TrEMBL record:
Residues 19-190 form the Outer membrane protein beta-barrel domain. Keywords: Signal. This is Outer membrane protein beta-barrel domain-containing protein. It comes from Sphingobacterium lactis. InterPro entries: Beta-barrel_OMP_2. Residues 1-20 form the signal peptide.
Length: 212
């Protein structure tokens, strides 16, 4: 965590020295989420949990073709299991909504009618809501359940803070249109139970945006 905070501090210092004009942007798209603590037995049943993201950001040039992009992002994450076999047919889905503060370093490469961009940087997220849903049939019995996730208190289901690293790539047209792809690598343990079973987020994203 200390290294992440230092990275944030260095990024903002670089941004403060920016000489060129700041621009702003908005991105949105689809998230494909998983958790990292899946056992070998569960891997055959795990699939991507489909959600969404919306991100507002500032682009602060600090050198030719190089910018720092701080932002605020609403991120849908989680995981999903589809079971089919051994008399069980059903699914269990965990949806988590997080507010993230990313700070990415972005490099632009002129290409055609725009620029290819590559970026990476740290993020800190705060889980604000979540739900686990399940439904299925076991033998002759059919049922379903729905539980809200708790992020505080003695009986919390998940830790509040999710910090990690972002990786991004895409294409920026000269008119400001953005094509985006990204990957969020969670580095903190979301499991509140001290049993050695660590869990962190893995999120692949695709989307569109516009930079003003």
């Amino acid at each position: 965590m200390k290294k992440l905070l230092l990275s944030f501090g260095a990024a903002f210092l670089l941004a403060a020295g920016a000489q060129a004009q700041t621009s702003y942007g908005l991105k949105a798209g689809v998230n494909l989420g998983k958790f990292s603590n899946v056992t070998d037995a569960e891997k055959d049943y795990q699939t991507n949990n489909v959600s969404f993201y919306v991100t507002g950001f500032a682009d602060l040039p600090v050198a030719p073709q190089f910018s720092i992009q701080p932002g605020v992002s609403l991120q849908g994450k989680g995981n999903k299991f589809n079971y089919d076999g051994d008399g069980l047919d059903g699914s269990v889905t965990t949806n988590v909504m997080s507010i993230e503060i990313p700070v990415n370093a972005v490099y632009y490469i002129p290409a055609g009618s725009g620029n290819v961009f590559l970026g990476a940087g740290p993020y800190v997220g705060f889980n604000v809501s979540g739900k686990t849903k399940g439904k299925g049939t076991l033998g002759n019995n059919t049922g379903e359940f729905e539980n809200d996730l708790k992020f505080s208190g003695d009986n919390k289901n998940m830790n509040l803070i999710d910090a990690g690293a972002n990786f991004m790539a895409g294409y920026k047209f000269n008119n400001g249109l953005l094509l985006n792809a990204g990957y969020g690598l969670g580095l903190t343990n979301l499991n509140p139970n001290d049993n050695g079973d660590k869990s962190s987020t893995r999120t692949l994203s695709f989307g569109l945006g516009f930079q003003f």
